[in-house]
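chain and backbone:
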Amino acid sequence: MKKVKITAMKQTIYQDLIDKYENPIQHACDMKVGQVFIANGWERPKGMCDSAWESMSAFVMTLAHGGEDFYDGWMKNKKSAMISCNDGFRPMSFLLETPDEDAE
């Protein structure tokens, strides 16, 4: 099984929605743009929040088993995917990719 590199690429914060609907939360998202994780199958990388992992784990598992070309050519690199976590107030976008050294 291949390892999958997960890079936090961008986060959007919808402060208007937070102010209107969310109860105050400390540490709602501790991940930072540029942070890199390495996934090994279904094992959630240390430091990755549950919500983000739940949003991407099926894509990670597919890439780890050699799958590619999601949605018929969606990504320029067919061995990658761009996935966002399901936090409606502060979604983080992640680039998932199979590092070249793991290629068969």
Notes: The chain has a mean pLDDT of 91. The chain has one domain: 4-102. Residues 4-102 form one domain. The first helix runs from residue 15 to 21.
